[in-house]
Amino acid sequence: MKPLMTLSLILLLAGCSSLGVKPWERDLLAQTDMQLVSDPIEASLDDHVYFSKEGSSGGRSFGGGGCGCN
User: Fold this and answer.
1) What pTM did the predictor assign?
2) Among 4, 42, 56, 60, which residue's beta carbon has the most beta carbons within 10 A?
């Protein structure tokens, strides 16, 4: 029973050894297409339109506000 437990512990620890980004993968993740917000100006304009239609301050991150006519 002890060898089986040791083997399962080794396999469990080996499964976590490949977490993280390798240095040679960072160039792909730094490209503009891989960013969460690839065009900050367009995102800012979209936020402005959303906040104007919502009628509240904070819009997406705060609860409440708006006209209340659901």
Assistant:
1) 0.36
2) 56
